[in-house]
Write a structure and sequence with these properties.
Elements lengths: L2 H10 L3 H10 L6 H20 L5 H21 L1 H5 L8 E6 L7 H12 L3 E4 L6 H11 L3 E5 L3 H17 L4 E5 L5 H7 L3 E2 L3 H10 L1
Parallel strand pairs: 1-2, 1-3, 3-4, 4-5
Helix pairs in contact: 1-2, 1-3, 2-4, 3-4, 4-6
The chain binds cobalamin.
Cobalamin binds next to helix 3, helix 4, helix 6, strand 3 and strand 4.
């Protein structure tokens, strides 16, 4: 097993001491995209372990908080690697989890990771109403709005807010994500994009 695999396992297991020591020793040997992929893969594995009953919510919260901490440490200590990540940092993004939904882990990971790339991403939180999206859009004039929904019940709110925003701001790009939606659903409501995870978003933003 190579050292990157060992690092990934320490993230999956929420072993902060091991993961932070590895990162501190390897700031110069690891690129931003590589770190992003390793952490993204680790979180996908954590989600799988939850699905199979091997992990419970506390384990998942610990790993996701550790992921955030590792992103922050890397960005703080390796600004050159972040600056070399080719993402157009001029685009503004607003991210909110829709009304009725309090799931925050996926959103937090995306916000932390994209902020580390120097993107201007504004986190407007969870349980976000149409009015709050609208006010934030008017205040910040973003190019992209990202919204997530994780339950069947809150998917209805996502669709309603999505349609209202498309009516009031037809030029705005709206991306959707989270456990309650998929690419088929995104096509049905005519969302501008659906991404399975953080790795897919970074790929898209780098290549646009
Ligand atoms: C953790 C969790 C909770 C925690 C949330 C803690 C927190 N602070 O966030 C708690 C315990 C609070 C919770 C509560 C509930 N939960 Co819950 N929860 C989960 C769980 C297990 C994991 C979610 C998660 O954090 N995954 C890890 C992160 C890293 O992955 P992610 O969220 O998928 O995010 C990634 C991608 O989806 C993507 N992404 C996410 N958002 C976006 C947005 C955009 C624009 C893009 C491009 C990409 C993107 O990128 C992210 C990073 O890679 C899921 C199961 C699952 N498999 O998703 C159930 C799940 C979402 N919950 C569920 C349910 C039912 C509930 C409750 C209703 C339970 C209850 N009876 O009270 C409540 C609802 C509360 C509410 N009103 O919101 C169901 C929903 C089922 C359904 N179809 O309706 C699920 C699917 C579990 C299940 N299989 O039954 N939950």
């Amino acid at each position: 097993m190579n050292k990157f695999e060992i690092f990934k396992i320490s993230v999956i297991n929420g072993d902060e001491d091991k993961a932070v020591s590895f990162l501190e020793a390897n700031y110069q040997n690891i690129g931003y995209t590589e770190l992003m992929e390793l952490l993204g893969e680790a979180m996908i594995e954590v989600g799988n372990k939850y699905k199979t009953g091997e992990f419970f919510i506390p384990e998942m919260l610990i790993s996701s908080q550790l992921t955030g901490l590792l992103f922050e440490l890397f960005c703080k200590n390796n600004p050159d690697a972040v600056n070399n990540t080719v993402i157009d940092s001029s685009m503004g993004i607003i991210f909110g989890t829709v009304q009725g939904d309090i799931h925050t882990i996926g959103k937090d990971i995306i916000v932390k990771a994209l902020s580390c790339c120097g993107l201007n991403i504004i986190d407007i939180g969870v349980n976000v109403s149409y009015e709050k999206f609208k006010n934030s859009i008017e205040k910040h004039n973003p190019e992209i709005v990202m919204m997530s929904a994780f339950t069947t019940a809150t998917r209805r709110n996502l669709e309603k807010i999505f349609k209202e925003l498309k009516n009031s701001h037809p030029d705005l790009k709206i991306f959707i994500g989270g456990a309650a939606v998929n690419s088929k659903y995104a096509d049905e409501i005519r969302a501008d994009g659906f991404f399975e995870n953080i790795i897919e978003i970074i790929k898209y933003l780098k290549n646009r």
